[in-house]
Amino acid sequence: MPSSPSSSAGAAGLACGAGAYVLWGFFPAFWPLLAPAGPLEILAHRLVWTLAVMALVTLVLRRGKILWRLSPGGWLMAGTGAVLIAINWGVYIYGVTSGQVVETSLGYFINPLVSVLFGVLVFNEGLRRAQWAAVAVGGAAVCVLTFEHGNVPVIALVLAASFGTYGLIKKTSKLAAVDSLTAESLVLGLPAIGFLLWLGGQGTFSTGLTGHDLLLMASGPITALPLLLFGIAARRVSMTTLGILQYLAPILQFAWGVLVLHEPMSPARWAGFALVWVAVMVFTVDGVLAARRVLRSRAGPAPQVIAGS
Fold first, then answer.
1. What Å distances lie between residue 92 and 29, 214, 236, 266, 289, CA to CA?
2. CB-hemisphere CA count at 13 Å for 100?
3. What is the C-alpha separation between 168 and 23, in angstroms, rounded?
């Protein structure tokens, strides 16, 4: 039978969401290609070329008036989000280019647990027992990994905290995803241009459009594409589906670090990650069951069938 428009939209949303997280999952394969540029130069180029992409998208969609009319409070919100995402991107680039891909994946495994804690602390949301259990197991995992590594996994915690706080800002923002990302790109892009001009001849970018130059320029589209795919998916699939899809990225990043880069994994480190995965499974299963209960309550009781005489 032909599919309905709603099912087609759902399938397209699922494909876009999976595409976004798969692209994010393979980011560790891209950023090392930008050597010999250092993390700060890579971050600056990422900000500048993302600004170029979002400026083009804004012109095509004719949404410039929205930013022109944005209030000072709106720009303050965009500026706060810009600082948080810059920290997240910068720390991630540093982690990937310094051979710490597994630890960066840890940050995105525990990010949902950070978001849950923000829901409790900021929005006074109540947690179910399973959610509390997931948070407790996630905390135990961080303790195990800290003991194994000899110090706190700073990269993972900064990535989780910065992206979790960024999500909090996005939740309270009234701007659409495209407008919000464009505003953030404006806030970040202008200082990044200034940094690259100051860097001058000490940077690795030249005007010859070499392969290295093209890769640096590609950092903009590579950044914007999964964000736009995610924006499409968010409008077409449920939050439960997105919540499950989000683990594609850290799973792929972890696999890249262990199978491709052969990063060391001691028994204690495996134990720490095993605890993280238990927390993720508890969190995900609880979310799916809760969503099903909501759907049943909205559907109401099943109609009674009266047998004929």
1. 13, 21, 29, 23, 33
2. 16
3. 23
Per DSSP, 38 falls in state -
DSSP label of 34: G
The answer to whether residues 74 and 241 touch, using CB atoms and an 8 Å cutoff, is no
Q: Give the integer Cα–Cα distance in Å for 231 and 221.
A: 15
* Integer Cα distance of 173 and 289 in angstroms: 29
DSSP string, 166-215: HHHHHHH--S-HHHHHHHHHHHHHHHHHHHHHHHGGGSS--SS--HHHHH
**Phi/psi at 218 (nearest 5 deg)?**
-70, -15
Instruction: Please provide residue 22's backbone torsions phi and psi, each rounded to the nearest 5 degrees.
Output: -65, -40
Give 1's pLDDT tier (boundaries 50, 70, 90): very low
Check if the beta carbon of residue 17 is closer than 8 Å to that of residue 245. Answer: yes
Judged on CB neighbours under 10 Å (0-12, 13-18, 19+), 3 is exposed
Mean pLDDT of the region 240-248: 74
Q: Where are the alpha helices (DSSP H) in the chain?
A: 5-25, 27-30, 39-61, 64-68, 72-97, 101-123, 129-149, 154-172, 177-199, 211-236, 239-245, 248-255, 267-299
Q: Residue 2 above 70 pLDDT?
A: no
Tell me the C-alpha to C-alpha distance, in Å, between residue 22 and each of 18, 149, 215.
Answer: 6, 28, 19
